[in-house]
Amino acid sequence: MEASGAASMGMMIIWMVIIFGIMYFLMIRPQKKEQKRLQAMLNSMEVGDSVVTTSGFYGVVIDMTEEDVIVEFGNNKNCRIPMRKQAIAEVEKAEQATA
């Protein structure tokens, strides 16, 4: 009787490891890849790049610090808003926008 109890405990541990492996490859790994891609995009951002914020506003980066950017919105050049870099969803490089 003890042998079957040990075997079922071993199978349960094997199934838990398999389920954790599936969860890692389906959930955790893609999220980490996306975080690395987003961080690389924010690190490559420069003054003059066109950006889209997480709230959907289009603008141009006019100044940057380590954690913040100042984005100019609209054509009248009077709407300049400081925001965190994490509020940027997409970046289009300045040389791509003019080409």
UniProtKB/TrEMBL annotation:
Pfam families: YajC. It is found in: Cell membrane. Its main location: membrane. The keyword Protein transport applies. It is a single-pass membrane protein. Keywords: Cell membrane, Membrane, Protein transport, Translocation, Transmembrane, Transmembrane helix, Transport. The chain crosses the membrane at residues 6-27. This is Preprotein translocase subunit YajC.
